[in-house]
Design a protein that fits this description.
By secondary structure, the protein is of the alpha/beta class. The protein has 11 helices and 9 strands.
């Protein structure tokens, strides 16, 4: 892993980390919420053999990236493109995990000449879709969405997660994880990088998380998902208790070119290991 920062025209810092060979097929990784540029570390051991160059980017308010109050989903796209430009990357694949799925799709919609393909993994859909919205945790999501202002939303999130994230797995649906996700967490607990990852997710307390929720709570109003023209794989675990599979079905229904893959017995966390296969298939596509 190699870490970098760039400065945007408005003076904000955007931080990112690169994994895998410089000559590999580029992949911009849009992390979950909460998340950080360190999220792709779990796939790093395989990237040389797979020929993939993965770039994890801190969204505003996470890790080393500056806050950007009032940001929309589409507002992030210039950050992602600026990182690609800084690395000399013209065309790339995107992965969006959970919250990050919308950011991957927005990049494909707004920069169709740059994005070769998208994997939306365990991703939230357009939250204007009420059946999907209702699957989201009341405490961790809907109460934040319903808060009257950002300050109130921050207090809701602080109560759920704690400023340092130590209460994260006690909030919302996280107490009702499927067997595959529980096994994932047990293994992750032995990862020496977990402390750094948690610190990056909550580098600004819960502010990055709250700004994610305020951006996605209104639905996909800042970009037109029908403008996505590249191949899309919508990947989801059948036993996801954090973002219900109905989200994947709805996203696939909005994208006629999408391939829907529901992995039996997998949850919200464990399914992330399955992103490699569709990435390899998309990388082999000459488009």
């Amino acid at each position: 892993m190699r870490e970098h920062t760039i400065t945007m025209p408005d003076g904000r810092t955007v931080a990112f980390a690169t994994y895998g060979p410089d000559a590999g097929t580029p992949v911009l990784w849009c992390h979950g919420g909460p998340g950080s540029r360190l999220e792709p570390a779990g796939v790093e051991p395989f990237l040389d053999a797979l020929g993939l160059r993965v770039v994890g980017i801190d969204r505003p308010g996470y890790g080393l990236s500056s806050l950007r109050l009032g940001r929309s989903i589409a507002d992030w796209v210039p950050d992602g493109l600026a990182v690609a430009d800084a690395l000399g990357i013209d065309r790339f694949l995107t992965v969006g995990v959970s919250t990050g799925g919308a950011y991957a799709l927005a990049t494909a919609a707004l920069a169709p000449d740059r994005v070769r393909g998208v994997v939306a993994c365990c991703a939230m859909t357009d939250m204007r879709h009420q059946p999907s919205r209702e699957t989201m945790s009341k405490e961790a999501c809907r109460d934040v969405w319903d808060a009257p202002d950002r300050a109130s939303a921050i207090e809701v999130a602080r109560e759920q997660f704690g400023d340092d994230g130590t209460k994260m797995l006690l909030s919302g649906n996280a107490g009702n994880l499927c067997a595959a996700d529980l096994a994932f967490l047990e293994q992750a607990a032995t990862d020496p990088g977990q402390a750094a990852s948690t610190a990056a997710r909550f580098a600004n307390g819960v502010q990055g998380y709250v700004d994610d929720r305020l951006a996605d709570g209104v639905g996909w109003t800042s970009f037109d998902v029908s403008a996505v023209s590249c191949p899309v794989v919508v990947l989801h675990g059948s036993d996801d208790t954090i973002v219900g599979p109905v989200n994947a079905h709805h996203t696939a229904s909005l994208l006629p070119q999408a391939t829907l893959r529901i992995e039996p017995g997998q949850g919200h966390l464990s399914v992330i290991a399955f992103v490699v296969e569709p990435l390899i298939a998309l990388a082999a596509n000459p488009s």
